[in-house]
Amino acid sequence: MAGQRGSTVSGEAYTTSDTDILEFGSPRWVRQGVVFYVYASTVGTAKIHYKDPSGTYREAQTTACAANDLTIISFPFPISECKLTYVGTSSGGTINAEGRGY
Predict the structure, then answer these.
(1) How many CB atoms lie within 10 A of CB 11?
(2) Distance CA 97, CA 33 (A)
(3) How far apart are the C-alpha atoms of 53 and 32, rounded to whole Å?
(4) Span 30-44, mean pLDDT?
């Protein structure tokens, strides 16, 4: 049986404004970092938000994504809780994403 890979979402719809796609909490065993795999059907911008101790999400990184192409966003340090949002250049697109620690 395979271990838990992380948090995943498949076929999630997004719009031309910030759309919450995935929330991810790093397991305690994560020591080195966090990686996100993003595959969207239209051009857009993936944003990673760090959840600070007060519970507020703060934008940590913005990455441009091509249509129908895999984008990998990696942090070389652990992030306890974070969220992936996506802004498409057109509405009606879908996204597959995974967040996992290593």
Answers:
(1) 8
(2) 17
(3) 20
(4) 87
- Rounded Cα distance, 58 and 81, in Å: 11
Instruction: List own/partner pairs for 2-5 with CB under 8 A and 24 or more apart.
Output: 5/98, 5/100
pLDDT tens per residue across span 62-94: 999 999 999 999 888 777 788 999 999 998 899
Distance (Å, whole) CA 78 – CA 83:
14
Pairing of strands 94-101, 34-40: antiparallel
Torsion of CA 36, 39, 43, 48, to 10 degrees: -20
User: What whole-number distance in Å separates Cα of residue 80 and Cα of residue 6?
Assistant: 13
CA 76 to chain centre: 15
CA 97, 99, 102 angle in degrees (round to 5)? 145
Strand partners, 40: 69, 95
DSSP 80: S
pTM score: 0.86
